[in-house]
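Researcher: First entry.
Model:
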Amino acid sequence: MATIYLIRHGQASFGSANYDQLSELGQLQATRTGQYLARAGVSLDAAYSGDLWRQRETCERACKELDGDIAHHVDPRFNEIRNDEQVEHLTPIVAEQNPALKQLLKTGLSNSKHYQKLIEAVFNYWVSNDCSAYGIQSWDEYSGMAQAALAEVMSREGSGKTIGIFTSGGTIATLVAHVLGLGGTQTYQFYEPVFNCSVTQLFYSGENVSLSYFNDRSFLQLLGKERGEELVSYR
């Protein structure tokens, strides 16, 4: 039985001019994740990430803590869901159907929790409708590419391997829902709770894949307690 670890990137720089970079905490989370894997005796045969910098840097920092020269493959199909374009194009439509969201937009999105409510409403509209007419990537296109990327990793790496895929919360949620045989409308429940640098484990054999565990961040809590560090974050 072969193993895939889906690892979310460390904390990005929310609110800064360039979101797509790890914060100081995100850099530390990535390093501690690699140290955890090393202490747990995990040896990666290969590592994959999307081409977003926060994903690539998390991969590089984590793999630096592991033994051996780990090949790092970059595949943009593991990139995050395009929240920005969804928010830009779909917010006016969703707000007209959602009075609570419309009111929230009037008063302003003053914090990350407010922004998450917007993301949830827009995401659930996106997966339930063909939004390609608005000039944005559709759910079918996005989820299809993520699923194909996972299948190709399994096929390329073959049996008996241990693989790390460093990606984002939306991609992890999409792949977990797919593995469980769920559709787009059930995907958001796996999206919102994903912690930075949490680990989700899949087992695969041939074309068959199953979920072992989801969104584990207990190692960050343990290492944080050992070192006097606050390592757990959502955003």
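Researcher: Second entry.
Model:
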Amino acid sequence: MGADELAHVRWIAGGTGAGKSTVTRILAERYELPVYDGDRAEARYAGRCTPERQPYMCALLRTPKEERFAGRAPEEVFRAMPSLHGETFGFVVEELLASPADRPVLVDDFRPLPRELAPLLERPEQAVFLLPEPGFRRRNLAARYADPAAARATYGDVDPAAALAVRVARDELWDAEVRRQARETGLPVVDVDGSRTPDDLAADLAAAFGLSSLSAARAGRPTSSSGGG
């Protein structure tokens, strides 16, 4: 497979709590683009995993929520991540290849690693890895799971603070791996600390992704509302 087959895809990956979904939504609304949601995709392809080809994914699916973070060492949780071993990236590529390629598609997914994406890009700017500053991530995730129901849905019936601490430490290991691979492959990393608005980040990504021509095309036809600007 050549990079030209996925030349229409723009990848927004990186670390959890960096605001990937927010920036993706802004771009999707502003340029009227479809989004490939990595979390929803995983729910689709999880049932296709086998112990022989995706052992880490199958082990994760068998593990109760209560045992995925609480009481485990961050290094252990990190090493058990299916995405670290590239187990499900093939499913993502298959689905993207089967989708229309007549306009750009935004991929919102933390799972792809630089070493996986590099061979699929015509130019490095087709992908970006957003990596949150640790304090920024902790604040974002704490707010996300402040609702007990949301915390229970993710961590089960355990102390959410303890589970969150392990998750944050695991994610810092993930970010370090992403940063290392990005350096080796020459792919762009953007550090996110909350000092810039999501709109500012979206504008930078739009320029890097080459979406300005889409903006010019839209200017020639009426829009229903101001939308995302």
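Model: Note on the second entry: Residues 160-185 form the longest helix (26 residues).
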